[in-house]
Amino acid sequence: MSDSVSPDAPELKPIAYNSARFLTSASRVSECPPDDGSEVAFAGRSNAGKSSAINAITVNSKLARTSKTPGRTRLINFFSLNRPGCRLVDLPGYGYAKVAKEMQEDWQKHLDDYLSRRESLRGLVLVMDIRHPLQDFDRMMIEWCEQSQLPLMILATKADKLKSGQAKQAMLKIRKALEGVDCLEHLIQFSALKKQGLDQARNALTDWLEAQEQPLTVAP
Predict the structure, then answer these.
(1) Rounded to whole angstroms, how far apart are CA atoms 52 and 58?
(2) What b/e sequence results for 72-89 when a residue is b if at least 16 CB atoms lie within 10 Å of its CB, and e otherwise?
(3) Per-residue confidence of the chain (220 residues) as pLDDT tens digits?
(4) Residues whose CB is less than 8 angstroms from the CB of residue 88 and which lie 6 or more positions away in sequence, other chains included
(5) Is the separation of the CB atoms in 20 and 60 below 8 Å?
(6) Are 130 and 156 in contact, with CB atoms under 8 Å apart?
(7) Half-sphere exposure of residue 13, counting CA atoms within 13 Å on the CB side?
(8) Where are the alpha helices (DSSP H) in the chain?
(9) Angle between the 198-209 and 50-58 helix axes, to the nearest 10 degrees?
(10) DSSP labels for 169-187?
(11) Cα first-last separation, the chain
């Protein structure tokens, strides 16, 4: 008798990013939603275009709040998707010069706690301005992903601010600088304004979120 799928097995819906809805905010790990299913977090220096990238991917201009004062959002924001247990996470922005050092350190502690303790985390999207790539915060996040063997996607945002040739050269420099970084799975030239890189980003997110049954590999 041939194998067949159990009629009781639930049919999972394809992930639709325009289904993203605000779920909850947390100021610390203890306030986060239950640590099950799958989630992918977005991180980036303040003013790198993180909120705009999330809004473009989800086709919702109001989902992740953008502010004229970068770094204002200090909470970890969770967004649910149409597939149960799948979430996108917006981590606080870091590195804005006008934010007090004590506040930056407080945000850093929350980020460290989340990244270290969140078992449902399947990958990290690092958003960085293609014109100012690989700043100290970016390198710190890349190093953390490398040490933790956490899959990394880099969105080189604001590509529309450069001419085509300039953007190509910038991407080549970034790729060369990251040679040997094994955790880097995707490096995407991205523009929220021009809708560039959206399909690549969504496909990569889906691959990570649908891997919810696969446990993360922890470095010995």
Answers:
(1) 10
(2) ebebbbbbbbebebbbbb
(3) 444 444 554 567 799 999 999 999 998 888 999 999 999 999 998 889 999 999 999 999 989 876 554 444 678 899 999 999 999 999 987 654 455 566 666 667 777 888 888 999 999 999 999 999 999 889 989 999 999 999 999 999 999 999 999 999 999 999 999 999 999 999 999 999 999 999 999 999 999 999 854 444 444 4
(4) 20, 39, 40, 41, 42, 54, 58, 78, 79, 81, 205
(5) yes
(6) yes
(7) 10
(8) 50-58, 101-117, 136-148, 164-177, 198-209
(9) 80
(10) HHHHHHHHHTTT-TTEEEE
(11) 44
Residue type, 119: E
Structure tokens that stand for 138 in this block: 């970016």
220's tokens: 């010995």
State the residue for tokens 């201009």.
61
* The token pair that represents 103 in the structure block: 């506040």
